[in-house]
Each structure stands twice: as C-alpha cells, then as structure tokens.
Sequence to fold (629 residues):
Amino acid sequence: MDGQTSTVTPDGRTIGGVVMEMRNITLRFGGVIAIKDISFDVRHGEIRAIIGPNGAGKSSMLNVISGFYNPQEGEVWYKGEKRKPMKPYQVARQGIARTFQNIALFDGMTVLDNIMTGRLNHMKASILDQAIWWGRAEREEVANRQKAEEVIDFLEIQSIRKTPVGRLPYGLKKRVELARALVAEPEILLLDEPMAGMNVEEKEDMCRFILDVNDEFGTTIVLIEHDMGVVMDISDRVVVMDYGKKIGDGVPDEVRNNPDVIDAYLGVAHD
Amino acid sequence: MFYREAGDYKTSYAQDNQTFPIAFDRYRYYFVVAVGFALLPFVMTDYLANAILLPFLIYAIAAIGLNILVGYCGQVSLGTGGFMAVGAYTSYKLMTAFPWMDMVSVTLLSGLMTAIVGMAFGLPSLRIKGFYLAVATLAAQFFLVWLFNRVPWFFNYSASGQISAPERSMFGWAITGPAANPSVKYLFCLLFVFVLAWLARNLTRGSIGRQWMSIRDMDIAAEIIGVNPLRAKLSAFAVSSFYVGIAGSLFFTVYLGAVEVGASFGIQKSFLVLFMIIIGGLGSIFGSFAGAAFMVLLPVALTRIFADGFGWDTALARHIEFVIVGGLIMFFLIVEPHGLARLWALAKEKLRLWPFPY
Ligand SMILES: Nc1ncnc2c1ncn2[C@@H]1O[C@H](COP(=O)(O)OP(=O)(O)OP(=O)(O)O)[C@@H](O)[C@H]1O
Ligand SMILES: [Mg+2]
Fold:
C-alpha cells in the first residue's frame, strides 16, 4: 500500500488515501510513558480501531489527536501537512470531532441545545447579529436546526429533543454525545469506547449507527473499543496497543493471529 | 384549560424557537409590557418610583448582566458593585466633560467602558475557576472602590468626594437632576430594561449563549467541540459588564442623583445582586426579574407589615429581612439552584397537564 491509491472493501465502500498519520508519537506524564514511539496512519473513509488492555494508552492517543495533549516527540500529519501544536478547539475547526470515554455532555442543557452546540463551527453570525436576532442570526439558527434535526432523526432520538440531558439514562446519553459530534459534519470522528457499559441491544444499535455514519456520510472513524467481537466485525484495520507500545497493526484477521496480540490479551508467555 | 401546547402546532423551527411558545404566556407578556409603558407612567407617584419601580428596573438590568456571567457562563463574580461604580463614574465624567451629550449616549458609553474594564478583570478566568475566581473578582471590587475614592480626578476634585449628576433633559423632559419627573425617569429606565432584556434573551438562545452554557457545564468538552474558551469567557465578561455598567450609570444618574462610592457601590451591592439571581434563578432572564422584584419588594413589604402595621421598630423589620433572605439563599442553593424561575416553571408544567396529569 503506497498510501495514495484507493481500495474497495468487500462490502463496497471506497477507502481512499491516507488522511491522517501519526509519526513516532511519544507522550509522557512525568515518569509515566503513556505512548511510546507509535506510528500509524488513517485512510480516508475507513473505520480504524485502536484496541488494547486497560491503561495501554488508547485514550491518550485520541487526546493527542484532538489536541488535548501535545506529545513530547513525534508529529501529527493531517491531509498531507504537518500539524502545528494546536488547541482542542482549533482541531475541532479542522473537521475532527469526538466523543469521550466518560460521557462529557452539557448536563444543564437540553438534548437539542447540546446538539446545536455541536454546530457552532458552522455558525458565523457575530455577537451583534445574534443580539438583534432578526435576519442573519435567525436564518442561521433555523438552517442549523434543520441539520440538527436530520441527525436527531438519523439517531432516532426525536422524542427526547427537549429533555435536559442530565435526566437521560446512560445509553441515550452516549447516543446524544454521538449526535453532538456527528452534527459538526466532521471528516474524522473519534469515538472513545462508544459501547462501553451498554447492553447487547444498545450495542447493536450503536454498531449500526457507526456503520451507517461511515457508509452514508463517508466519515472516517477512529474508534477505541474493548469488545473484540465488535471490533473484528466493524473495523477495516486495527492498531493494537499494550503498555504504550504498538504491538500490532493490520486487518482484523492479521491482528487476530498476531502472537504478540494473543499474548497481550491472554497474558501468557509465547514460545 | 387554555394553558396548553396541544392544538397550538408549530410549523417552523422559528416558531418552535420563540421566547414564549405558549400563546397564553405570549399574551401575558404583551399585557405586562402594555401596563408598563401605557398605564404605570400615568399613575406614577414619587413613592412608587423611588421605593419600588426605579430600583426594581435598575437592579433587573444588573441582575440580567450578572446572570449572563454566573448563571449562563458559570464564572462567579463578586465584583458587581465595583463594575456598577465604573458605569456611574464614567457617566459622571462624560456628563461633566461633555455637557452637550444626550443621556442615552452617556448611558451606553458607560456600559461600553464597563465592558472593557470587565473584560480586563475577566482575564484571570482563563486560568482560575470557582472559588479562586470569586476571590479575584472580590479583589477587583475593592480595588475599584478604592480607586474611585482615592483618585480625585474621578470625582472632579470635589471637596466631599461625592459625585452628583447635573440636570440633563431629552426632548424637553428632565431625566436627571432634582427637577426630573418620576414618570420620565421611570420611562427612561423602562426603555433600557425592555431593550436590554430582549437583547439578552436573543444572546442566550443563540450560538453564543450555548457556548457560554457549554463552558459552564463542562469546559473541557466545550473546548473539544470547538468553543474557544478565551472568546466565550471574555465575551460573557464583556456583555455582563456592559449590563452592570448601564445599571450603575442609571443608579447614579437617574435614581440617586448623587453617590459616594463606598456607600452605594460597596461589597454589599455585589452580594445583593448575587442574591437576586440565586433567589430568582441562575441561567434565567425571567429569574433575574423575579429576583430583583423580590429583593426590592421584600424590605418594603416587611416595613409595611411590621413597622407600619404592628408598630414595631423599623430596625426589627430589617433584622427579619436578613433572616428571611439568609434562609432563602440557603434553601435555593441547596434545594433549587434554579430559583424562583424554576419553581414557576414547575408550576406551569403542572398547569399544562392539569387536570389530567398523564
Ligand atoms: N492526565 C494524565 N496524567 C497522568 N497520567 C495519565 C494521564 N492520562 C493518562 N495517564 C496514564 O497514561 C496511561 C494510559 O492511559 P489511557 O487513559 O490512555 O489508557 P487507555 O488505554 O485508554 O485505558 P482504558 O482502557 O482503561 O481506558 C495510564 O497509565 C494512565 O494512568
Ligand atoms: Mg481509555
């Protein structure tokens, strides 16, 4: 693979060239090395999973991508350019959205307001326009509401539109958080354990949504997940991390048969 | 039975988005506005204006301002009194330096000046939060009062250290000074309240309002979905201070006419406005009005009941006021942080379902 040619998956989706590349990333917290010299790439339109045992550094990797941590060493390349150190909100403006391992919604706001907040990078009316409301601000609000409603329909959360998110059960919160990320129309969507703590039914729904997002909108997805079954089912390629190191990278079948990966997961010595 | 959403179908997102989605609320709002503009000016008395309506209107502006910062953006401030003083002293300097300037411009420029000062004192909020920010704004409060007390330029070197508002008129009506008619003063303040409340409502329901609330609810998540925390926090400080500055300006020019900074804009004022929004409801424009009305009416009512009614000592009525306000603050902080506005909303929710709660 030369990183430029596109391929077609067995289920008929087109996967393009490399859109993002992590080069030799090292991230330290004091003495703790959370990520040790990791490189991998993400191709346009693919579902890229990051797996690994607890504390492997998966969330830290997403936090590097979303600009939350600046790695001590290494480079992030995005769309063919080396990225300067950035603040998280600048990363968001480049078209990278995400959800969190521990739900991070705005509890005091309604579902609709949470989702509308996700549209903010598409809303350009100045404070003065917004204060006066009539005209520009109102038009923009209505146009973006339209988009928010599309996502609400897509994720089947119409009935809780006006509910304060603080009152929602866990599974729905996860869905609202996905809606908030999705409504930004990101090019890359980062999902940190989108199915953690869900029951089987909720997991199936979430899987379906992730696949649909990828399929219908062509969104590139980087996802962290513990459930091996799910990962092997839905992802195109998998990075495996253990103790901050990359121990495997490839299509699910390759990874499944990689002896280092088997060791890390089963915790036995390999001969 | 007519307090219903049913049958009142919304056919556009703009309609769904309006301030009073229920027709009954809308009519009540028109009614209140009509009474405020068309009826009250004709039945105005000095007592009604000075004891109730002027302070209510002016504190409502200050409360909306503080609510934008504390209730919507989640940045605690104890500097309200100091920022009101900035508005008052800017008005004084403008009125004395440019006697030709009309009062609307004086008031708006005072708000703008306070917005700039507020932004400067808001800068620490980028680094510190909660309790520490409260202490920083407290420092601003004391610094500003000290400044206006100690630098004679601000009070034009007057011997008393006080400032007093010269008489100014618009369209032949005196607005400031001893000759001003209470109805005119009232209408002047009401006009500001009306426009400012409407602007605040627009800001808080739009994109910037959601950015403020997202910072309040979870600043890390806000930043990661694209909110620039610097812009969001400083804009909240600016808008909030603009309102508070206008309130300070009106408090001095229209309401009191003469002030001494420590007495009028001391730390008590900061707490008074903070109590208004806690009792009225954090994160609610309506709550700002409710809180202002409550805190203005309570002492009047208590004096009426205990001093005039039972013939008790007025000092005792004051003490009862402290006890009631203290108790209510604790109640609202612990039980209902969204204040009177939330209780009101709950009552409406019940009413909407009545008599069939399912
Ligand atoms: N802010 C931080 N400060 C200090 N250490 C941290 C910080 N964030 C993560 N770490 C450490 O970095 C390592 C990797 O953590 P990380 O959260 O990335 O793991 P993970 O793979 O997401 O694990 P899990 O599956 O439990 O979510 C851990 O040892 C953790 O303690
Ligand atoms: Mg994690």
